Amino acid sequence: MTKDFENNTTVINYSAMDYYSRQFSIEKDMILSKNDKTVTWVNTYGFDFMEDFREMVLANNMDDFLLRLLIGKSHGSKVIELENQLFITAKIIKTENNTIETEQMFFVVAEDFVWCIQEKVGDHFDWIRDRIANNKGIIRKKRADYLLYFILETIISNYKEKYNGFDVMEEMFSANTKLEPTPEFMLKIEEQKQLTIQFKKSSYGLRDIMVKLERLQIKGIRSKYFSDLREQINGLLNDIDSDINELDSKVNLLFNIQGHRLNQVMKTLTIFSVIFIPLTFMAGIYGMNFENIPELRFKYGYFILLGVMLLVTLISILIFKYKKWF
């Protein structure tokens, strides 16, 4: 095995009475099953150790099919039952940073070990390591399936915490009646929607894993732990669907308000147009430069025309009032 593999791999071994945690050692930690009552948790960061993975698989008499699964670096979300072992692959969202990144994770699980392979460095499992180190709760009294439950439960909890931390929609719509659907604003809306859909897609992948884990019939792995996880991920999916519907509803409301404003402006302009069109017509007639227009020589013609214009204006306004157009 290469030194890089050792540097990127840690191992924890524990039981109700014993515990150790260290950097992976070829000499001491190659065999994952200790044939005692301990549980081994191996965590590897990176996929660039295929030869080392091969040696691990062969040394532990794992199913050869694991090699093909590990070589294929992108699997989506799957649960594959092997002989006395379980292979799980999940495409998850990394929640450590402010940005949203995806990461592929592999789990090889047996009755007494969990081998976790992560695409990128960093995770949220330190609290599990702390509980194991300090013998908190019942985790050290349980087998590897309970450790897998804790790891998956942590991923789901991180999803919830990260998703609930996004309050962009609340900020954008805090005063939705004053917002204008500018290109910049609509771009923010689309970014928020794509972020929500990304969470939804990844959450569906986790739910599929939980459903399959519930139906497991493999030695040493109890499926009862994963029913609660399925309920948790379903709750998150319900929240996401609710937020997507709310987002669509508020966008529709925004456009309806904008359309109402436009209608009010158009109605006002139309009213002014209807009032001034006959006035402009009369002014146009008496503004023509023909000599034979009798009214032009009438002493009170100008004042009579102003009176007619005023009368037409008043009649138009009364009609609009009667029709309740304003």
Automatic annotation (TrEMBL):
<feature type="transmembrane region" description="Helical">
    <location>
        <begin position="269"/>
        <end position="288"/>
    </location>
</feature>
<comment type="function">
    <text>Mediates influx of magnesium ions. Alternates between open and closed states. Activated by low cytoplasmic Mg(2+) levels. Inactive when cytoplasmic Mg(2+) levels are high.</text>
</comment>
<keyword id="KW-0813">Transport</keyword>
<feature type="transmembrane region" description="Helical">
    <location>
        <begin position="300"/>
        <end position="320"/>
    </location>
</feature>
<keyword id="KW-1003">Cell membrane</keyword>
<keyword id="KW-0812">Transmembrane</keyword>
<keyword id="KW-1133">Transmembrane helix</keyword>
<dbReference type="GO" id="GO:0005886">
    <property type="term" value="C:plasma membrane"/>
</dbReference>
<keyword id="KW-0406">Ion transport</keyword>
<comment type="similarity">
    <text>Belongs to the CorA metal ion transporter (MIT) (TC 1.A.35) family.</text>
</comment>
<protein>
    <submittedName>
        <fullName>Magnesium transport protein CorA</fullName>
    </submittedName>
</protein>
<dbReference type="GO" id="GO:0015087">
    <property type="term" value="F:cobalt ion transmembrane transporter activity"/>
</dbReference>
<dbReference type="InterPro" id="IPR045863">
    <property type="entry name" value="CorA_TM1_TM2"/>
</dbReference>
<dbReference type="GO" id="GO:0015095">
    <property type="term" value="F:magnesium ion transmembrane transporter activity"/>
</dbReference>
<dbReference type="InterPro" id="IPR045861">
    <property type="entry name" value="CorA_cytoplasmic_dom"/>
</dbReference>
<dbReference type="Pfam" id="PF01544">
    <property type="entry name" value="CorA"/>
</dbReference>
<dbReference type="GO" id="GO:0050897">
    <property type="term" value="F:cobalt ion binding"/>
</dbReference>
<dbReference type="GO" id="GO:0000287">
    <property type="term" value="F:magnesium ion binding"/>
</dbReference>
<keyword id="KW-0472">Membrane</keyword>
<dbReference type="InterPro" id="IPR002523">
    <property type="entry name" value="MgTranspt_CorA/ZnTranspt_ZntB"/>
</dbReference>
<keyword id="KW-0460">Magnesium</keyword>
